[in-house]
């Protein structure tokens, strides 16, 4: 199954967006201002390539809400900022997420972030042709429970993407569809601590029989997203 090359271009633009944020995030900047910076960066593609984007622009305690539109809330020192970016280039959609840290993260944040990465790696090892989607959700919930994080991920673990921004199969309780060879899927585990912060990381993958291959070769390690 041939992959739509537009998806790779969408992922390239997404990477450029995250890199731009690494250079510009700082205390005092508002979520709306961050949205405007992203919109300005993507405007040339909108005009030439029928591109568009949507996403979650949330910071501080708002990250516990999992998603949301930008507000006038300004980043503060020791905040987290989450951008879940869905972007279309011509006919190809991608969907990625990164969590940024405005200053040195706490030990609790560091522990949670590592568990999210471990959950992603565990889920990646489970997804292959013929696997039933809901089994990945169940396995991820069990993995998080064993890490002492039971009930702290109240959303799916990922979904199909490419022709649409969100499609089935999805790694959720109610989806009994089997994963097909050549499908493009996301994995997006997260943890959300009421009254404190949320963390999510998301990549796009292609199913190649007995394995997943990551299509978004962009860093995930926490240190890369600490803004000092």
Describe the structure.
The protein is an alpha+beta fold. It has one domain: Creatinase/methionine aminopeptidase superfamily (Creatine Amidinohydrolase, Alpha-Beta Complex), CATH 3.90.230.10. It is 32% helix and 26% strand. It has 4 helices and 11 strands, in the order ααβββααββββββββ. It has helices spanning 5-24, 31-49, 107-126, 133-146, and strands at residues 52-59, 80-89, 92-102, 159-160, 167-170, 184-187, 190-193, 197-200, 203-208, 211-214, 226-227. It has a 4-stranded mixed sheet. Strands 6-9-10 form a 3-stranded antiparallel sheet, with helices on one face. α1 runs antiparallel to α2 and α3 (107-126) runs antiparallel to α4 (133-146). The protein starts with a helix and ends with a strand. The mean pLDDT is 96.
Blueprint (SSEs and pairs):
Blueprint: H1 5-24, H2 31-49, E1 52-59, E2 80-89, E3 92-102, H3 107-126, H4 133-146, E4 159-160, E5 167-170, E6 184-187, E7 190-193, E8 197-200, E9 203-208, E10 211-214, E11 226-227
Helix pairs in contact: 1-2, 3-4
Q: Could you spell the SSE succession in H and E letters? A: HHEEEHHEEEEEEEE
N-to-C terminal Cα separation, in Å? 43 Å
Mean pLDDT: 96
Into which percent range does the helicity of residues fall? 25-40%
Molecular shape: globular
Share of β-strand residues? 25-35%
Structural class: alpha+beta
Number of domains: 1
Tag the structure with descriptive keywords.
228 residues, three-stranded antiparallel sheet, alpha+beta
């Amino acid at each position: 199954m041939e992959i739509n090359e537009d998806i790779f271009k969408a992922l390239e633009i997404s990477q450029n967006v995250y890199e731009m944020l690494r250079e510009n995030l700082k205390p005092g900047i508002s979520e709306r201002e961050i949205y405007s910076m992203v919109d300005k960066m993507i405007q040339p593609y909108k005009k030439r390539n029928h591109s568009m984007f949507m996403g979650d622009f949330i910071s501080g305690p708002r990250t516990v809400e999992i998603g949301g539109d930008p507000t006038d809330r300004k980043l503060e020192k020791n905040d987290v900022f989450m951008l879940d970016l869905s972007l279309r280039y011509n006919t190809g959609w991608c969907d990625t997420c990164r969590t940024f840290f405005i200053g040195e993260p706490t030990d609790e944040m560091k522990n949670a972030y590592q568990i999210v990465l471990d959950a992603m790696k565990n889920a990646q090892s489970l997804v292959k042709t013929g696997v039933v989607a809901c089994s990945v959700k169940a396995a991820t919930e069990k993995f998080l429970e064993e890490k002492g994080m039971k009930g702290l991920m109240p959303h799916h673990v990922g979904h199909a993407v490419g022709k649409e921004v969100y499609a089935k199969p999805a790694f959720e309780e109610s989806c009994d569809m089997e994963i097909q060879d050549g499908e493009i899927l996301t994995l997006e585990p997260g943890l959300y601590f009421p009254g404190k912060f949320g963390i999510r990381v998301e990549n796009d993958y292609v199913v190649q029989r007995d394995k997943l291959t990551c299509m978004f070769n962009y860093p995930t390690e926490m240190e890369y997203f600490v803004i000092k």
